[in-house]
């Protein structure tokens, strides 16, 4: 693999081209998934709306889109579609103009992109996977698209171990050569990072009204047809937020400033605590933990790399690590919650031990000492 190295002058020119193109680019965000890997958190809330570093996850991406200079956003929704419009409305509060397209039947990634075609205003569309927390320079991606006069430009991120992902090798000029499935011997460390820039005519050429995969069908067909598909390759922050562990780490990275968000500039640290929350004496909050509105943290509790949603209560001396406690849940004194999810309104009694991926569904009550892994009580 050969990496193209630009001079500073070339990079500046590319960034200027990206900034100019951003003003004439639609932002499309696919947010239709059911978030099954994050249940029970997504039973009542779509994954992109889960509180992440004090804001709905999607709001961080919208902030990056606005900062890059794009103002027209189309949300491709499906699961609990009404939640998005109820929260964001027309987008004016964020300095955006947001429109919504509801997918009534599952259409896959390619079908989901084609489904929003009628809402596009410009000849260029930047498509985002709503599950991904990223940090790439969006203007730079657009700059590559303009510089290469590409039909499609993909954001490719380099990762230390690409075996768990599909790989996308490119030539010395950045042109995509092929799309490879997961393999134990990948030929490149470049993986698909879930951001694509399309010419509008390419989107309109996707078959309408049926499920279709952009990765397995559309992109290979474009290569076979000789279309100009390029990669913008970098080492930017990238995390798929689909699992509980990744959700917790992503939120933590936002709080600590490892992952960028325009919404948190100047507010980084070991914890992010809403002004309306209460924290008892001797409680420790670190690891990029978040405490939501009206939440209560008891005296001597320890919260490590965890997300405490609005109105949750953590008892005195409890330990919460690498976990998520949903809205209104109540954790009893001296209880340990480690690598677990506690659903909305659940009640966990004193001196329980909930560890190793355990998930408590909304409204469930566990009595004092009701779940233990140790022999002592």
From TrEMBL:
Pfam families: GMPPB_C, NTP_transferase. InterPro entries: GMPPB_C, Mannose-1P_guanyltransferase, NTP_transferase_dom, Nucleotide-diphossugar_trans. Residues 27-254 form the Nucleotidyl transferase domain. Residues 269-366 form the Mannose-1-phosphate guanyltransferase C-terminal domain. Belongs to the transferase hexapeptide repeat family. This is GDP-mannose pyrophosphorylase. It comes from Corynebacterium lactis RW2-5.
